[in-house]
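Reply to dn_fold:

You asked what the input looked like. This is it:
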Amino acid sequence: MLSNRGLGDSVNKKRILFFLPILAIPLVFHLACRTPMPELSSEAKLSKGKMISIRWTTTDAVLAKVFNEVFPVPPAILLDENANLVDLTTVPLPEPNPDHAPKPKEEKPMNPNELPRWDRGFELSNIDNLTLVIRKESQRPFYSIGMSLLALTMLYYGTMDTEAELVWTSGETNLHRISFLSTYETIWAPMPFYIGTGSTIVSPAINSNRYPSLLQKYCTQEKPSKLRESLEQSQVETCKEYETFLRRLFLQNYDAIHSQLKEWEKRNQDWFQP
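and this is what came back:
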């Protein structure tokens, strides 16, 4: 029979093994490697030299900052969040239809005997209340656990996949969308035997506050309570993470957004209806 001392040591070891994955989470963020921020292609860098002539407004101060830094557009007109505006994040939008995506137009060859037409690029088109709507988001826990097991349980692996769209109004009734914007971020770190998989299993629950929809909510739409800030993070840190998410999303989808903004600038309304 086991002595009381031996039984106590066994219980203590089980407790240590149970809490090790939880205690290892802070260590992950010191040793972790993240997906690097995307870089623009050479063609995209050249496109930033030509301003897109649009006049746009938004109630999202972080979106106003990042969108203006990534795309060659004029600064946003920042609206008061208490203004009488429709909250586009709560509008029940139907699923995006791929058939509504813009079709690239063929450039017509210029007739040398025809005088060139005026470029309408200087005209400002209105984008009212540009809003980012989070469509889907997932930490893909089973995929992460599988990656950790492939590394013989010695790897913490976490990921966040997000699908979003830019939505705005023009006039009183027209609703416009740039859909199918997707982004991903992974974070991984070497961990001791078994601890890697344990941390991977526990982290989705601990990191639930880092869903992009919650970052957006507690940065721009609602002030977090003091209890939430003490248990999770301050609003300042939340806004920093939200800004990083937006920058990653826009850079990973730069070509798609830029091309559609150019089409909008030309006032081609037909293809842009949702």
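The longest strand covers residues 174-190.
Hope that clears it up.
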